[in-house]
Fold:
Amino acid sequence: MITLEQAKVGMADKVDQAVIDEFRRGSLLLDRLIFDNAVSPGTAGSTLTYGYVKLLKPATAKFRKLNEEYTANEATREKASADLKIFGGEFALDRVIINTSGAVDELDFQMQEKIKAAINLFHYTVINGNSTTNEDEFDGLAKLLKGSTTEFDDTYSKTVDKDVVAGKKYFTRTGEGTKESPYVYEKVDEPNKTNIATYYEVSYVDLSTSKAMDDNYNEFLDMMNDFIATMQGKPHMFLVNSKMATKMKGVARRAGYFSRQEDAFGRSVDMWDGIPIVDLEEYFDGETTKACVPIDEDGYTSIYAVQIAKDGFHGVSPTGNNVISTALPDLKQPGVIKKGDVEMVSAVVLKNTLKAGVFKNIKVQ
Structure:
């Protein structure tokens, strides 16, 4: 296992070292994430696959009476794998632009922007990645946690409302609730009073306004404690969007849970009961900007919690120190267009679903 800080030590190129620091400075998640740098190309040299064993259900222990046998109970695990993905970007500049840059170094500016873009893409994919729908992505936490016991507060119940409540989500239900025919809930786009008796609603907590926070922060505190209790051990960080980060800090101040700590670069990190609140910010896909931790059209979002460990949530990378690479243009070579690029080769895995979790259905707007 290796961190980006440790990977930097093994690099001879000062530029590569500086780029590693920029990734660490731009992302507390990347700064603290550990990588299993053990992946080599397959036999054909076309894939980078990381194989591991995923713990689905831990074993249990019980008391017994004299002359009484234990009831057999085994831990459940399965073989799993993750393909490393390659992502980053390239930029091209005319050598005249590079050589005549003034106070703003154009080459440095483009490099910084590519690093930011790579960080934001990594953040977005850590949450939303789905290799089934996009083979270029690695799987993110939304998929890795689907159906786990740490997918918190996704409870549906028959609504008791007599009329439609503005801003509230309603669902219809199909299925028999069996393994062969599980319940399927679909959101009602245009709920109406006539059919409200047939609707279901999902449990949620409202922090959308200052008044709602005053009214509901104790409920939110209890739910946060229940959420953390579903995990095996205390999480190392909460991964959220900017709105959720603001709400969490507001509740933490009301409850005396708020504190600050300096990171490796001397900057303040906001904490919830000693756990960093990490704003994953936004991702720009070339057309639209979207929160890395989504907020749906009704204003509901989630909190992801991770425990970074070799038997929990961690990154994977190629053998050696090759998680991040950089290429700068050689201005002494012929050609008027000079190219540079930044690239990262990585994925994330979750070896134990009790080492991460998601708290859903928090209304923030």
Observations:
- The chain has a mean pLDDT of 91.
